[in-house]
Amino acid sequence: MLTDEAFTRLVAEDVKNKVTSDQGEYLRLPDNHDRWRVSLNELVDNLDEQIQELNRTDQDAERRFADMEGGSVLIMEMKVGNDERRTKINRFRFYVEQRVAEVDRMIALGDEALTDDIKLASFLSKAIKEHRLLMEEYRFDPTPIDVALWAALEGKWNFNEVEEAVNANF
Question: Does the global pTM surpass 0.90?
């Protein structure tokens, strides 16, 4: 399972459309819906904090530079820069809100919203988790193939390493 920080980074990259199709499908697995929604809401909160900080910066600049010679130019320059950042933040926030709506729809519709590929991925994910639980319960030593399979749950493809290890032994 991805750490919360890595998952949140993946969510942000998804909003920017900078993830692979496998990573996008990973986010859309039913087991990840609630976590995905939490990360998106945290992202919205962070963006709101950034806008509030820009507003405070504008107010501080007005107080500090208002009586200074050439201060109005400094204030104007700072406000223009902050307005550009606010625009970018608000644009990104809009796309985050769209993703929140997408996740809400998926949660509300449940299995009805899943494509066949995602249903299969969900089924296989549950099977891999059950495999690991049984291996641990019955105290079987995992093989490199088992470990690679479990890593797939985190979106990591470690089967090449298994193949390399096998080839090195022959």
Answer: no
